[in-house]
Amino acid sequence: MSNKKQRLATLDTFRGIAALAVVLFHLTLHQAEAPVHFSWGVTGVDLFFIISGFVIYMTLNKTTRAVDFVFARFSRLYPVYWVAVTLTASWMLIGKYWGYSDISWGDYLANMTMFQHYFGVRDLDESYWTLIVEMLFYGLMLLAFLFNKVKNLEWYGLVLVVIQAIVHGWVSVSYPYLYTSIREGFPLINHFQLFWAGILYYKIYTEGYRLQRVAGIVLAYILTLFLFEKTGRSNLFLSWPEYIAVSTLYFGSFFLFVSQRLEWINNRITRFLGTISYSLYVIHHYFMNGVVTLLRDKLGWQFVPAAFVALMGALVLAVGITYVVEKPALNYLRLRYRS
């Protein structure tokens, strides 16, 4: 592996860590019998958003046509997502028979769009809430590309971060109804600073340290801490000191990454988890809850063995989706697109 690929492999390690953190969080959530509760895993989505800012900005810097960017995102996200939604809906039908879930055709079809938030339809899997945030970020980046503003996104991003601070600081107090409408209508407003930090890390990675970039990341870090009790879900499961510690770890790790001092954490396991991270993320939550519920409540298993079976099942499913759906679909769709 070349030095450049080895350095970028750290992003896969980050993805794998973030995905596993979220999975373990959901596996032990509200489980009184769990010997350990991975509450800090709720912050895995923060790490995902920083990674996304870095990767999407890197992608746009190599893109020549807007349609190429749209197709790349579609082919990367939707085939896996459609399979995950369909499997989750199928399990929900089974759960409906057992009396612990419910689903309608409207729920299923709305979720297949990935924009169910704007249809007023629940996410079939609670993990899906982050996907609309990602999609809004992609849309914002596409607009920047169309208006030829990609090279200046570190400065336009600063404007949006200032708007974030105003919305969550002044508007939330002075106009609470408007504040709720903004958050519901444009949920990216709750997390944009993390994507912007990823963009700034990429600028440091490719162009070197500049005072304004470091200051921007520090601003994003401070705003992240400020939003602890206002956005996301971390405040429901972590204390303020715990959130500070985990956020500091994420931001600090990215500084080590862009300074090329973190390659030592990469290994076969982390690269493997990074490879299956997207499939694992979109398939794990409802599936694991269903397996634990069935084994414990219907068959009388203890939580620990039931959780182990659920975790192994989710990993096997993620591997299957990655290598049977994601990679073949990517190859096929992109080959057809190029031809």
UniProtKB/TrEMBL annotation:
Any single biological process term in GO: polysaccharide biosynthetic process
Transmembrane is among the record's keywords: yes
InterPro entries in UniProt: Acyl_transf_3_dom, Acyltransferase_3
Membrane-spanning intervals of the chain: 12-32, 38-60, 80-99, 128-148, 155-173, 185-204, 211-228, 240-258, 270-287, 299-325
Acyltransferase domain segment(s): 10-321
Keywords: Membrane, Transmembrane, Transmembrane helix
Tagged with keyword Transmembrane helix: yes
Record GO cellular component, one term: membrane
Source superkingdom: Bacteria
GO molecular function: acyltransferase activity, transferring groups other than amino-acyl groups
Name of this protein: Acyltransferase 3 domain-containing protein
